[in-house]
Amino acid sequence: MSSATSAHSVVEPSATTKRIAGIIVVLYAVITMVPLAWIFMTSFKSPPDSISYPPKVVFTPTLEGYCNLFTTRTRQTPEYIQSLGPPQSICDEITRSRNMVIAGPSNYWPRFTNSMVIAFGSTFLAVFLGTLAAYGFSRFRVPLADDLMFFILSTRMMPPIAVAIPIYLMYRELGLSDTALGMILLYTAVNVSLAVWLLKGFIDEIPREYEEAAMIDGYTRLQAFRKVVLPQATTGIAATAIFCLIFAWNEYAFAVLLTSGSAQTSPPFIPTIIGEGGMDWPAVAAGTTIFLVPILVFTILLRKQLLRGITFGAVRK
Amino acid sequence: MAEVTLAGISKTFGQTGAVDNVSLTIRDGEFVVLLGPTGAGKTTTLRLIAGLEAPDAGRITIAGRDVAGAAPATRDVAFVFQQYSLYPHLTVYENLAFPLRSPARRLHDAEIDARVREVAKMVRIDHKLQNRSTRLSGGEMQRVAIGRALVRKPAIYLMDEPLSSLDAKLRAELRLELKRIQNELGATLLYVTHDQVEAMTMADRIGILAEGKLVQIGSPREIYSNPANLHVAARLGQPHINLLPQGLLPGCNAPAGTKTIGARTEHLEISASTPGNAEIDWIEHLGDQNHLHIKVGEHKLVTLADPYLAIQRGDRIDLKLRNPLYFDAGGQRLT
């Protein structure tokens, strides 16, 4: 079987078809990018610009949103502000122009750090446990395997809100509410079902002859798993990790119910950024923009793994 | 290299029996071929020896050691699979070095390197050592797979139809190479195939498997000329053996109880004659020889003929038997 297609191939679409298809794809991409672009633009607008009607597409960019995101401020009299020395930073300057002074850092970075710890921690755990469980289901005769797989999936069948109260009560008793460990365990529990199902599919595709060959060649099953199965499952593991991370990173319902202070993640925190006289939309947009970065970086880093189709090349069916 | 014995080995998967009370000794340095159709239990027998399956009954010894319960890694066997043989994420070199780098062996890098290069030369893949194993042709892949078994000096090499996925020309080449290498190494080898040509050309002894049972074992010549029953007779010979009712053709000296007569080419004498007792129904020209399809009354049979034999479709001939094989009603051979 050859992947080369000849110029005369009947399945090769015509130039016009290709162009139309290209235009549709680009249009779709633009439409899906509009909200992201809007958030990005808003993060550089001044508060009045951000709520002006009709919306402004051309505006003078300012860092006010980012300054407000990272600081807490107090209103002062112009006389007091005059009495201060020269501004220490660009944020200092912007804040003073609004008749305010910086009182201290905001909670954004601590919340962001919580998100990082909880999302990456639970993703690692879910993928780790999921890989082992999927391998077990794929390779061994597990009693009631189908029922167990269904049971694992059933943990995702109800909306989080349905189990939120029991979990809340349970966590309060166990002292797990508003702790990073509690959130990691919870997100791991939710993600592990997805991980097992996705990874079982990937591992089923890896012929067991590879491990059998390795075991005959002097390796134990665990060594064969590490040397032969894992390298071939990287594509599946990368894809699964991205799905798990996106869920844990964006999760809102559990986070808003179970965290309020020290373990609060970004999703419940960002909407609470309130400025004077209503929502501080540029600061919210700035918080959202920064919030998108880790997922973007993670996806780009794993893009190669996701796209690489190395796994099944040596198989002759 | 060492002797391997199976004593009364049985294995069933759920309801289906795969191997049924098989006893077999593979002597040190011997090339034994197990021949049988799909589902006869050939592969299961190999997997039982390798430790990939556990027998329900029976004993396996390798070099005198009972290996019941021993992990595959500790059995000192090498296995060549029918397919999926190479680790796709490794290069040819790494594939060949993989068994030597196992925790069970832990050889020095220099020793591994020397061994890999030696074997690569032996299986004629030394020019592609740095290639990814996915960038090889089918024949090259299978040579590497065989090489990966040969880098070790195990008690026995187990090969599961290693040539079946290759085209006819490559198969013929590798058949010769494999036999040459086995001779050079003096290796003990158990080889599984459904290809009678491979069995006939390579084996010191052939074991015929049918429905999990070892029906007969012997040298290729013995199995060919002295089959124990109809099934064994039908496994070997090209064209396929002709099975005729007793009394159809003259020239035989059938013992009492004969029901069926098995006639291969060498058991049939043809002479042009009118009216004769048979008619040429069809001739297939193969170049170096002809396949004659002959009609005797309602029965049809196929035999080989010299291409110079002046004979045409529709010709009448006289057909006579010469020392054919006799079988009773149960298919057992009578002598």
Q: Low-confidence parts of chain B lasting 5 or more residues at pLDDT below 50? A: none
What profile does the largest beta sheet of chain A have?
2 strands, antiparallel
Average pLDDT of chain A: 87
- At the fold tier of CATH, the topology name of the largest domain in chain A is MetI-like fold
Main location (chain A): membrane
Organism (chain A): Rhizobium giardinii
Pfam families (chain A): BPD_transp_1
Keywords (chain A): Cell membrane, Membrane, Sugar transport, Transmembrane, Transmembrane helix, Transport
Write the layout of secondary structure elements.
The complex is a heterodimer of chains A (about 325) and B (about 325).
Chain A: H1 15-42, H2 47-50, H3 64-70, E1 71-75, H4 78-83, H5 90-97, E2 100-105, H6 108-139, H7 145-154, H8 160-174, H9 180-204, H10 209-216, H11 221-250, H12 253-258, H13 266-269, E3 274-275, E4 278-279, H14 281-307
Antiparallel strand pairs in A: 1-2, 3-4
Chain B: E1 4-13, E2 16-26, E3 31-35, H1 42-50, E4 57-62, E5 65-66, E6 77-80, H2 92-97, H3 109-122, H4 138-150, E7 156-160, H5 168-185, E8 189-193, H6 196-202, E9 205-210, E10 213-218, H7 220-225, H8 230-235, E11 242-245, E12 260-263, E13 268-272, E14 278-285, E15 290-296, E16 299-305, E17 316-321, E18 325-327, E19 333-334
Parallel strand pairs in B: 3-8, 3-9, 6-7, 7-8
Antiparallel strand pairs in B: 1-2, 1-4, 4-5, 9-10, 11-12, 12-18, 13-17, 14-15, 14-17, 15-16, 18-19
Helix pairs in contact in B: 3-4
Protein name (chain B): Multiple sugar transport system ATP-binding protein
Subcellular location (chain B): Cell inner membrane
GO biological process, one term (chain B): carbohydrate transport
